[in-house]
Amino acid sequence: MTVPTVKLNSGFEMPLVGFGLWKVNNDTCADQVYNAIKAGYRLFDGACDYGNEVECGQGITRAIKDGLVKREDLFIVSKLWNSFHDGEQVEPICRKQLADWNVDYFDLYIVHFPIALKYLDPSVRYPPSWTTADGKVELGKASIQETWTAMESLTDKKLARSIGVSNFSAQLLMDLLRYARVRPATLQIEHHPYLTQTRLVDYAQKQGLAVTAYSSFGPLSFLELDLKDAHGTTPLFEHDIIKGIAEKHGRTPAQVLLRWATQRKIAVIPKSNSPTRLAQNLQVNDFDLEASEIESISALDKGLRFNDPVAYGLDIPIF
């Protein structure tokens, strides 16, 4: 199955549908990545704080060894964690992550959050977290400009083909674009019908950044984290509007939610343990929603953000 792509401002093509690796268990991760490749996935979205990059690399290495794909067929994404924002720490941690994945370059390397935490050596604690080894939040001193300059050097050294940002506001993008020698290729944000972030999406796309949505299914991704809003909000799969549109098109609610994004050129990175849903999530670009259907889904917006440090009890009000 051929997945449509979006051309990045760096000149590379990025698949519109990928496989997200957040909360994929270590004991099943290698097999899930391998099976996702067999199912047709080519984009894999990871991060060092997910704690499973070694296993991701094992799955990819096995798939390449078995002849399922070549390295150049894959689009591998990883992220720079907050505690590695100091300019001199960016390249070393990127190289560590590349070694974990067992690859020579990332197709896309992203600044995970627009906040610097105090550096903590990986030998002390890894995967990294919002807090230090003793459970405290300690902010770092690196500016976004310092971090971005170091990110740009990764492209110079061919360690990353493209670089991008995640969880940035429009104001931070405006600032970054003033001094960026290498423009960010992508913006990754929480994006679902309960949090459409329309102005941010429009601004990023007008500036030539491809937008990637995470948590496309809204509260479903956060139930196990016991967030109050996740448990108190109607699941999108059960919403009458989503269900009605799905029934009309002979699709699943998940496929409708993903198509709502990809039809507007927003990339998505769902994950699933089910082989059936794995295949279904790839089959979201062979039908079109009507303009009125897209509008009715977008009208569900509540400005409801789930992936917020404050929701996890951290005094880091970045949104």
Automatic annotation (TrEMBL):
GO terms for biological process: D-xylose catabolic process. Belongs to the aldo/keto reductase family. The active site is at Y50. Its EC number is 1.1.1.307. Substrate binds at H112. Pathway: Carbohydrate metabolism; D-xylose degradation. Pfam families: Aldo_ket_red (PF00248). Keywords: Carbohydrate metabolism, NAD, Oxidoreductase, Xylose metabolism. This is D-xylose reductase [NAD(P)H]. It comes from Penicillium frequentans.
